[in-house]
Amino acid sequence: MSTTTLDNTPVGPGAPEPSAAAEGPRRVPGGLLDPKQMLRSLPDAVTKLNPATLYKNPVMFIVEIGSVCTTVLAIRDHTSFAIQIAVWLWLTVIAANLAEAVAEGRGKAQAEALRRAKTDTIARRVVDWTPAAAAGQLREEPVPAPQLAQGDVVICAAGELIPGDGDVIDGIAAVDESAITGESAPVIRESGGDRSSVTGGTKVLSDQIIVKITQRPGESFIDRMIALVEGASRQKTPNEIALNILLASLTIIFLLAVATLQPLAIFSKAQQPGIPDSASLTSQGVTGIVLVALLVCLIPTTIGALLSAIGIAGMDRLVQRNVLAMSGRAVEAAGDVNTLLLDKTGTITLGNRQASEFVSVGGVPAQELAQVTQLSSLSDETPEGRSIVVLAKERYGLRQPGPGELTHARFVAFSAQTRMSGVDLPAAGGAVRQVRKGAAGSVSGWVRERGGEVPAEMGQVVDGISAAGGTPLVVAEAAGGTARVLGVIHLKDVVKVGMRERFDELRAMGIRTVMITGDNPLTARAIAEEAGVDDFLAEATPEDKMALIRREQAGGKLVAMTGDGTNDAPALAQADVGVAMNSGTSAAKEAGNMVDLDSNPTKLIEIVEIGKQLLITRGSLTTFSIANDVAKYFAIIPAMFAGVYGGLDTLNVMRLHSPQSAILSAVIFNALVIVALIPLALRGARYTPSSASQMLRRNLYVYGLGGLIAPFVGIKLIDLIVQFLPGIR
Amino acid sequence: MNTTTAGMVFVATLAVALIATYRPLGDYMARVYTSTHHSRVERALYRVGGIDPDADQTWGTYLRSVLAFSGVSVLFLYLFLRVQHWHLFGHPYAVPQMSAHQSFNTAASFVTNTNWQSYSGESALGYVVQMAGLAVQNFLSAAVGMAVVIALVRGFARHRTDRLGNFWVDLTRTCLRILLPITALAAVVLVAGGAVQNFHGYRPVTGLAGGSQSLPGGPVASQEVIKELGTNGGGFFNANSAHPFENPTVWTNWLEIYLILAIGFSLPRTFGRLVGDKRQGLAIVAVMGLLIVGSAVLAETGQAVHHGTVPVAVGAATEGTETRLGVPDSAAFATATTMTSTGAVDSAHDSYTSLGGAVTLLDMMFGEIAPGGTGSGLYGILVLAVLSVFVAGLMVGRTPEYLGKKIAGREVKLASLYLLTTPTLVLVGTALAMALPGERAAMANAGPHGLSEVLYAFTSAANNNGSAFAGLAVNTAWYNTALGVVMLLGRLLPMIFVLGLAGSLARQRAVPASAGTLPTHRLQFVGLLTGVTLIVVALTYFPALALGPLAEGLH
């Protein structure tokens, strides 16, 4: 099938999305980070030293225990070395707390803003609501909003706050939802259909609506939003749990390696009686300070410190894009998605079909066809109709007739019976010139009724346009007793700019895109090919959608979709990632596990990218953290034992100044690297969407190899400074 | 041909022979474990044992079968060893009674495929217990390892089931269809090469110089082959494969190394076949190959490049090596025996240079995965693969998957527990021995070498290797008991975690692979798994190694 007849440049309204293809491979950016936020969060970081909360992070809890031990020892020994180690260990814990505090800080600010929207109002509850009751006859009573129960019916008039989440059951109103979405333009909410849901805390601007409350007390959308952005209801995700288990195991291994070292050290020291005691090794074994320092350097403190911040920041990046995830699990699942179900309209194509060309039939001059076509659409206020007028103007230079020029024209509106629209114009001699446009079958019948011939050529053109996925509208004219076909309008769906590149990226990451459309298979196929999706579901009913999701899931795949209607709810619930549009029904919002406050279905792709970014950040920092240990061994082991076995000084490959400076430098590096990585943890690792193999290669180089080398350089540099500190020999 | 060239030819021909074996033996084993046919002998055995050979077991039942079988085996062997001195068994020479703690140690040792020996076979044991007790366990313990890994592979290969196969069938088939035929064939070859096979007892012999000595005989060749093939390592004689009756010539030495490595290196093929992607097996065997070649190069270098008057004069450290075999061949044997959980020796690892000896120690610390013990090697490396995939998988932005199975909390937990077991046993055991003044006295050497001996003993026991740094007097109640317990825990705990993992994997449905899935058959993954293994081992044992062989070897 060929799409060469299609004009690919978008016409008419609808601003094209910024193109990504032009600037080479697109990178998924990190989030935002305000440096001042780190300073503001310092008090919180200190508060978090409380062991009653810190124990939830076993790695940092061990560091805190170590800090306490070294502090006690430092007070007892009163050496400069011991004091400095103790101070830096405390700083290590504070750095970890700081990461979490900063991540939570942003959520707290958002929660504050939301709380302001949640001022308690007095609701006007309707007593004994019946649909038949007229507006004036309703009996109402004042009830504080928090006491509203599920199923209560309330009245909200202009200027009032809606007291709770619910569905409009009567009336229509403009509602200001900026408290939740941040979008100041009001939205229309009306009973019935897919725009019936209202959110508590939003304000009615005009008219009056009757709302049936659907929330349970204290579980409103705003309540849940506050809990979500504050991280109060944050539970560890499955993947986070798995990683925590691995980190705990590594911690145990290093705890063992350090603890069992003591008898070996005592034995080794005893074997060399001539060697004097040092700050790290005495005849009682390795000193407590050094043992704790070694342990803290070895256990995966970097990732242990940043792990929860990474999770909170991942949710936060979604919130920054106005997406609310109901659980961290959903964000993770987004990274795992194998199949994306995308609604054609609004996601892949601009909202409406648009005229792309006029094809004349039977030798009718193009200009004449254009003129007639324009006439036929002057009163057609549908987006398709307007696009015809625009095309006539842009390509044929036909200006739109001004008011008063067509005073005697009688416009014929589209009806389901005739499936045509058009205009009747007075012609010379009292005759009437009739212009019609519509579906091929209807217009052909209309022409034949008026004694006209339908040329075979028209059939070919119509078939050609249909085959290319377009919609043909036939234009005919009847004047002077005979009717004739003039030509065909080609209406087509306009694919958003940049979508093909997006889909290519998704394919590279192993994600299959399926376009969902109500169009017939022919049309659907053409658009699918033009947009570059992998598959399509034509003439889709909610049942078809559901069946598709089930089929994919049966094959072990994870499916993401967007939806807004009540009939989307089952599919949203079934999908692994279901993003409900905020403009949709409360049933849809209830069924999905994310809500897009902007109601922009294209955002599904961004959600997937953020999900992946979260996992990449976690994995990369884990790799970095473990790789760091190699250098720390090379710093600390020779520092501990080179005094006993001179040969071990060969391992001091960094040629660090002294045992004390080496150990202190390793501890300082360990603390500073956490601070240095806070921005990365909060913003997320940037990445270029590509195959798993390519991403792994890159991240292994950056975080694996980088993690091996960086501490060698870092510890050496710190050692160059530390050796001049007082009390460090 | 000088010794270096000869050594290189020796190693190269071994590699070629193993590569040639990979496909046929791997495919054959895959057929053994997937066949639905039961031979007449097998059916008879199942009838006697009251086993329904077509019943599939859950991972719990499979595990209980493994544990019960191992428990009964330890008990039986223990009792057998306690009474083996009875005249009833018709000894050609006087056999003393074995102490309770040594019997426990030996029983634990042979059932766990360790074959740590705190006794001398030619003086402490009679032929009947060697044949009916120890040799039988040489077959069975190897077969148990194979059965467990096959259950794990089935966990990867099967979907949405709680069934992992039948332990008794896997055990029987491994013995009858894989181990017995190869053993029978190779034993004949070994006899042809000069290994003895008789029931003579001690014979007085007059040597070339006219001196007379008393030489032991025994059913050696039959036991020798399964000792290597099943990566057991328990020698008929105290000198193990350094004894000319066990390992007479250079080419029998070659054959023994080949037997040690044959099954371990072919099992990845079986794995690839069973999971339906032969490239996966190739990736695993590539990691094994990389590690063992690296270790062999290190061992040879450690022996060849060392200071000291004698080593410099001879061109290599010859102490402790058999002159019949030479340094390179001895080092090759040492690498093979420590990289598998064999523990047979044809030279004294204790007498190696400190760095050469450190390599044998390090080999075992890898956890016996390259290629490791029969069966246990493959499950060890697969557990490491699961952990590598977990960390690497996150870095590509997906919940990690290996062979279509998601690696989530439960899988990571079991794999982590597996990873924790051996280091815990090694480090705690060593630390205890070093902390107890009485046990420190068992060391023949002072300083870091003494520490290495203790570290080696616990590493060997926990990893079910069985070789020893001589010089440590281990036939004491404490060492016999401690090492016996370490061997049992080092064998059975990992099996519990592996079978748990198998059960958890089998329950999952398969996730289809896509471009976003981390590929586990490419060179990239081979490098990743090798790197993870090296780093995990290095980080765990670096402090202990620093105070032992490194302190001794670095100047």
User: Distance between the terminal alpha carbons of chain A, to the nearest Å?
Assistant: 81 Å
Q: Taking Cα atoms only, what radius of gyration of chain B do you get, to the nearest Å?
A: 23 Å
The helix content of chain B, as a percent range, equals 55-70%
Largest interface: A-B, 76 and 67 residues
Description:
The complex is a heterodimer of chains A (729) and B (555). Chain A has 729 residues and is of the alpha+beta class. Chain A contains 25 helices and 24 strands. Classes of the chains: A alpha+beta (729), B mainly alpha (555). The interface between A and B is large, with 76 and 67 residues.
Q: How would you concisely characterize the structure shown here?
A:
Chain A has 729 residues and is of the alpha+beta class. Chain A is built from 25 helices and 24 strands. In chain A, a hairpin with a 2-residue loop joins β10 (281-282) and β11.
